[in-house]
Amino acid sequence: MDQSNGMLPKKEDRRVRRTKKLLTQALTRLLQEKQISEITVRELTDLADMNRGTFYLYYRDIFDMLEKIEDSMFEALDDIVSLHQNDDVSRQAKPILLDLFRFIEENQEICSVLLSPHGDMNFLHRLNQVVREKCLQLWPNKEEEKDSSFEYHYSFVVYGCVGVFRAWLNGKCQEPAEKMAELADAMIRRGSL
Amino acid sequence: MDQSNGMLPKKEDRRVRRTKKLLTQALTRLLQEKQISEITVRELTDLADMNRGTFYLYYRDIFDMLEKIEDSMFEALDDIVSLHQNDDVSRQAKPILLDLFRFIEENQEICSVLLSPHGDMNFLHRLNQVVREKCLQLWPNKEEEKDSSFEYHYSFVVYGCVGVFRAWLNGKCQEPAEKMAELADAMIRRGSL
DNA sequence: ATGTTATTGAACATCATGTTGACTTTATCA
DNA sequence: TGATAAAGTCAACATGATGTTCAATAACAT
User: Fold this and answer.
1) Residue B43 burial (CB count, 10 A)
2) Do residues A113 and A26 make contact, with C-beta atoms less than 8 angstroms apart?
3) Shortest Cα distance, chain B CAs vs residue A12, angstroms
4) Nearest to A104 by CA among A154, A155, A163
5) Cα separation of B181 and B97, whole Å?
6) pTM, entire model
7) Best mutation site among B63, B132, B162, B192 for testing chain A: the one with the most A CBs within 10 Å?
8) pLDDT tens digit string along A127-185?
9) Cα–Cα distance between B54 and B61 in angstroms, integer?
10) Are B184 and B161 a contacting pair, CB within 8 Å?
11) How many Å does it take to go from CA B52 to C1' C20?
12) Which pLDDT does position B88 carry in this prediction?
């Protein structure tokens, strides 16, 4: 999960990295306390201890900034998904789930904020779409299962897992990622009762 | 799902009902297009065709307004949950699920918006808490199941159902509520694979 | 050391906000 | 129906955030 906006061939200036990092830290901290819409550019740059104008060198507004942060999250998530391209998820979902739980653990602060009450619904929907596309890639053959209930099944699983992520983050990721992956896999496969 | 802010003994003035209804319609419509934070009081009252000052007679700001709308949603949800107090959800979840799907169908616009990319994470969390309390009431005895995985199970189910709600609303609630309740019940009970 | 680039600080017009007061319209209830 | 209370309108105001600018300074890369 790098903070850069794209895959620039040349690495960014050290000052730019510093600026974006400070802004991201400040935003993460503010989002723990209030809605994104209540956050002003002024208080963000004050907290990051920099000039207000500097913010506008990189972001159009605070929503644009959050979106760019989410972009870098999805780049990292895409990498994880790519590693498990050949997994037969319908038999074994644990491996990819384990990597996901580990990723979340490594990025607790920002993940916690994105899924918090002050978080972003759009993030959930982008997540849902990513999984949807992956599922369609993995099971392009099963024509008989392509009834409408397909949409409901993956939505149920994706959002269900998000719920588990939330609960896990809420408890500061106490349980080991391995145990969580096993639990999630069991609920997907055998239900929750 | 009434629009009143509380349990006022006296019914509100007709003008007040009209004003709040117009504002709610305008907000619902605007939330289909943009984030709540991008909505100004001016454009809201312009769309509702009323004076800007009138808004401030009832709401502190637009977030306050959304919160009050959500409050009335939860009142309606509480009523539904109360009707199923004696249900043994672990055996039969269909009845309460059916009522929930019907409620969503009857309030498509606002539900669709609340769960959309422009929706509200806080709404999900309030929903999660409501279900959590109900679950704790219903199974106060099963001590052996009160390990940490309890938190994960109901979170999985609640968020999973939200995902199904989302998908259903996305397709304009084509499938009958009965079928959806059955499907959701099956996924909760027997998993999604 | 030098040229380049990022950051600063100040200034600016613009717009949304939240509140006020006098005025008009509408609802309620006797 | 008509009196009275309440809701809504309109205009105005101070305040503060916004987004942009420009010259000056600081930090960087080589």
Assistant:
1) 14
2) no
3) 31
4) A163
5) 5
6) 0.91
7) B192
8) 999 888 888 877 655 555 556 788 999 999 999 999 999 999 999 999 999 999 999 99
9) 12
10) yes
11) 14
12) 82
